[in-house]
Design a protein that fits this description.
9 strands, 4 helices, Beta Polymerase, domain 2
């Protein structure tokens, strides 16, 4: 870890003290996690303290951590039917409408709001994360009063993940249609959606109806070890032996 990041880490711990739940230094980046009730006070300190001066919010997004760390694509072989992602309920949470996450644990926080900050004065970057306490109705404070640029970002996270930003002045959908059902970036959102829309010439308006699309079978990336790749690998090994 660079001396610059070490100094920032020490400053964060000295200034914010017990308000920080965790601080992680990884890949030359710093991530701090705070409780929702401390988010605004921490944000104000990050913006206003001379040793921090994170005056600019450059991004804010929602994250669904259900089944975090699991992968759907790890496989060494392909079957004759391909992969059942999007058809059969899976541990990773890609389900059909009405199914529930098999490994969902309501005691483990699922939804987080993640903020990315930059300090032009000190040339520092920081990731600030807070988890909603209720998985069924995730609510976190809005940081618009601290960084006004959060306005549309919070609307996007609300639209895609269903995270409610308390005290947001105009919290409504921003990417999907007003009649859209559900939040499409949640891991339990069905791949084919819940409803479809079309223009009805008789009624002269757009109407919504249940999805009639047949679920597709998606074939995962497969690591293959056959003659299509062995020749190239042998040539590479020969070159390596010659150079040695």
């Amino acid at each position: 870890m660079s001396k610059k990041l070490q100094n920032l880490s020490e400053a964060l711990q000295a200034i914010l003290a017990s308000q920080i739940q965790t601080i992680v230094l990884d890949c030359n980046e710093i991530t701090i996690e705070v409780a929702p009730e401390n988010l605004i006070s921490v944000a104000m300190a990050l913006r206003d303290h001379d040793d921090l001066a994170f005056e600019q919010l450059i991004d804010l997004c929602g994250v669904d951590y259900s089944n975090y760390g699991k992968t759907e694509w790890a496989t060494g072989a392909a079957s004759t039917t391909g992969f059942s992602r999007g058809i059969d309920p899976a541990d990773t949470g890609r389900l059909r409408f009405g199914d529930e996450l098999a490994s969902e644990n309501n005691e483990i926080p699922r939804f987080a709001s993640v903020i990315h900050l930059i300090s032009y004065r000190h040339n520092h970057r920081l990731r600030l994360r807070t988890f909603a306490k209720d998985n069924q109705f995730p609510v976190v404070p809005s940081v618009i009063e601290v960084w006004n640029s959060a306005n549309w970002y919070e609307r996007e996270a609300f639209d895609l993940f269903g995270i409610v930003y308390e005290n947001h002045p105009d919290l409504r959908r921003i990417l999907t249609d007003y009649g859209f059902v559900g939040h499409p970036f949640r891991k339990d959102f069905p791949l084919i959606g819940n409803v479809q829309m079309r223009y009805d010439p008789e009624q002269q308006r757009v109407i919504y109806e249940p999805v009639d699309i047949e679920p597709r079978v998606l074939v995962p990336r497969v690591i293959r070890h056959d003659n299509r790749y062995l020749h190239a690998q042998n040539e590479q090994n020969k070159e390596g032996a010659t150079d040695a």
